[in-house]
Design goal:
Length: 147
């Protein structure tokens, strides 16, 4: 029987989550964001997954949520309607407890951009997903230079 995921706010205190949002990004997360911003969503997923696996504590679930937005975008580009919606739903749950800016990432903007993309996917439906406007797949805004 599959187990239910334990989301950050169920495992950590809000204070622990808030504290984990400070400091630098894991190097693999930084690389993943750069790939995400180039539209290389599969590769971004791989880098962010490495950060998720290596990072202890609450911040690892932030990386999981960001990578799932990238996977949702990948699914959109490959016509996978259900996969995109599933990843958007998961990402919302993983990212819900994190502050508006997390490790320098403008998370509030990323969540807003993902919500708009998800709404457009729903509006288009499975039959018209091929009409999705790629300009709705916005880059992750970062508070500082990540290059």
């Amino acid at each position: 029987m599959p187990h239910e995921p334990v989301y950050p706010e169920e495992r950590y205190s809000l204070d622990e989550i808030k504290k984990s949002a400070q400091g630098p990004l894991h190097p693999q997360a930084r690389a993943g964001i750069q790939l995400f911003n180039r539209g290389e969503y599969f590769e971004a997923h791989e880098a962010l997954e490495l950060a998720w696996r290596e990072e202890p504590g609450p911040i690892r679930e932030f990386y999981r949520g960001v990578l799932q937005i990238g996977v949702a975008y990948y699914h959109i580009l490959h016509g996978n309607f259900r996969g995109a919606l599933k990843m958007f739903s998961r990402a919302k749950k993983w990212l819900a407890a994190y502050p508006a800016v997390c490790r320098g990432v403008n998370l509030a903007q990323l969540k807003s951009d993902a919500r708009k993309a998800e709404e457009r996917v729903i509006e288009l439906g499975m039959e018209n997903l091929h009409r999705f406007e790629k300009n709705l797949l916005k880059p992750i805004l970062f508070e500082g230079d990540i290059e």
